[in-house]
Amino acid sequence: MSVRKALWGEKQEAIEESLKAADEDLFRYIRDFAYEEVLARPGLDLKTRELLAITALIALGSPKELATHLEGALRVGATEREVRETILQSALFLGFPRALAAMRMLEKVLRSHGAPHPREG
After folding, report:
1. CA 93 to CA 73: how far, in whole Å?
2. Inter-residue contact 53 to 69 (CB < 8 Å)
3. Which stretch of DSSP H or E encloses residue 18?
4. φ, ψ dihedrals at 23, nearest 5°
Protein backbone atom coordinates (compact mmCIF):
# COMPACT_ATOMS: atom_id res chain seq x y z
CA MET A 1 0.00 0.00 0.00
CA SER A 2 1.30 3.44 -0.83
CA VAL A 3 2.02 5.90 1.95
CA ARG A 4 -0.60 8.26 0.49
CA LYS A 5 -3.29 5.58 0.62
CA ALA A 6 -2.35 4.68 4.19
CA LEU A 7 -2.53 8.31 5.33
CA TRP A 8 -5.32 9.71 3.19
CA GLY A 9 -7.60 6.68 2.92
CA GLU A 10 -10.80 7.45 1.05
CA LYS A 11 -9.75 11.10 0.67
CA GLN A 12 -6.73 10.25 -1.51
CA GLU A 13 -8.36 11.16 -4.81
CA ALA A 14 -9.77 14.46 -3.52
CA ILE A 15 -6.46 15.46 -1.95
CA GLU A 16 -4.54 14.60 -5.10
CA GLU A 17 -6.97 16.57 -7.26
CA SER A 18 -6.61 19.57 -4.95
CA LEU A 19 -2.81 19.38 -5.15
CA LYS A 20 -2.89 18.99 -8.94
CA ALA A 21 -5.18 22.02 -9.22
CA ALA A 22 -2.57 24.12 -7.43
CA ASP A 23 0.24 22.99 -9.74
CA GLU A 24 0.85 19.72 -11.57
CA ASP A 25 4.65 19.79 -11.11
CA LEU A 26 4.42 20.60 -7.40
CA PHE A 27 1.91 17.77 -7.01
CA ARG A 28 4.39 15.32 -8.57
CA TYR A 29 7.18 16.49 -6.23
CA ILE A 30 4.92 16.09 -3.21
CA ARG A 31 3.65 12.69 -4.36
CA ASP A 32 6.94 11.20 -5.50
CA PHE A 33 9.50 12.75 -3.18
CA ALA A 34 7.69 13.68 0.02
CA TYR A 35 5.29 10.77 0.27
CA GLU A 36 6.77 7.87 -1.66
CA GLU A 37 10.45 8.50 -0.88
CA VAL A 38 10.92 10.40 2.39
CA LEU A 39 7.85 9.17 4.29
CA ALA A 40 8.38 5.61 3.04
CA ARG A 41 11.95 5.40 4.34
CA PRO A 42 12.83 2.86 7.02
CA GLY A 43 13.96 4.07 10.41
CA LEU A 44 10.75 5.70 11.68
CA ASP A 45 7.31 4.20 11.47
CA LEU A 46 4.57 6.14 9.74
CA LYS A 47 2.78 6.93 13.02
CA THR A 48 5.90 8.60 14.41
CA ARG A 49 6.41 10.50 11.17
CA GLU A 50 2.83 11.79 11.33
CA LEU A 51 3.22 12.93 14.95
CA LEU A 52 6.33 14.83 13.89
CA ALA A 53 4.43 16.30 10.94
CA ILE A 54 1.71 17.49 13.32
CA THR A 55 4.29 19.36 15.38
CA ALA A 56 5.84 20.94 12.29
CA LEU A 57 2.47 22.01 10.92
CA ILE A 58 1.50 23.54 14.26
CA ALA A 59 4.76 25.52 14.10
CA LEU A 60 4.04 26.65 10.56
CA GLY A 61 0.46 27.59 11.32
CA SER A 62 -0.92 25.50 8.45
CA PRO A 63 -4.43 24.48 9.54
CA LYS A 64 -5.61 22.73 6.37
CA GLU A 65 -2.50 20.58 6.19
CA LEU A 66 -2.65 20.02 9.96
CA ALA A 67 -6.16 18.60 9.64
CA THR A 68 -4.98 16.22 6.92
CA HIS A 69 -2.10 14.96 9.07
CA LEU A 70 -4.22 14.70 12.23
CA GLU A 71 -6.49 12.37 10.27
CA GLY A 72 -3.47 10.58 8.83
CA ALA A 73 -1.94 10.00 12.25
CA LEU A 74 -5.16 8.47 13.55
CA ARG A 75 -5.52 6.40 10.38
CA VAL A 76 -2.02 4.84 10.75
CA GLY A 77 -2.42 3.90 14.39
CA ALA A 78 -1.87 6.92 16.63
CA THR A 79 -4.35 7.01 19.46
CA GLU A 80 -6.27 10.15 20.29
CA ARG A 81 -4.19 10.33 23.47
CA GLU A 82 -0.90 10.23 21.53
CA VAL A 83 -2.09 13.00 19.23
CA ARG A 84 -3.26 15.10 22.19
CA GLU A 85 0.08 14.61 23.95
CA THR A 86 1.90 15.66 20.77
CA ILE A 87 -0.16 18.85 20.68
CA LEU A 88 0.39 19.50 24.41
CA GLN A 89 4.14 19.00 23.97
CA SER A 90 4.10 21.54 21.14
CA ALA A 91 2.67 24.17 23.50
CA LEU A 92 6.00 24.26 25.36
CA PHE A 93 8.02 25.15 22.30
CA LEU A 94 5.53 26.71 19.91
CA GLY A 95 3.16 28.52 22.21
CA PHE A 96 -0.21 27.99 23.77
CA PRO A 97 -2.24 29.80 21.08
CA ARG A 98 -0.97 27.44 18.37
CA ALA A 99 -1.51 24.39 20.56
CA LEU A 100 -5.03 25.54 21.37
CA ALA A 101 -5.80 26.01 17.67
CA ALA A 102 -4.42 22.52 16.98
CA MET A 103 -6.50 21.00 19.78
CA ARG A 104 -9.60 22.65 18.33
CA MET A 105 -8.71 21.25 14.93
CA LEU A 106 -8.33 17.78 16.46
CA GLU A 107 -11.80 18.08 17.99
CA LYS A 108 -13.19 19.03 14.59
CA VAL A 109 -11.47 16.04 12.97
CA LEU A 110 -12.76 13.68 15.66
CA ARG A 111 -16.32 15.01 15.30
CA SER A 112 -16.16 14.52 11.53
CA HIS A 113 -15.37 10.85 12.13
CA GLY A 114 -18.28 10.30 14.50
CA ALA A 115 -17.13 8.07 17.34
CA PRO A 116 -14.17 9.35 19.34
CA HIS A 117 -10.90 7.48 19.14
CA PRO A 118 -9.66 5.69 22.27
CA ARG A 119 -7.63 7.91 24.57
CA GLU A 120 -5.40 5.09 25.73
CA GLY A 121 -1.99 4.99 24.26
Report:
1. 21
2. yes
3. helix 12-22
4. -175, 125
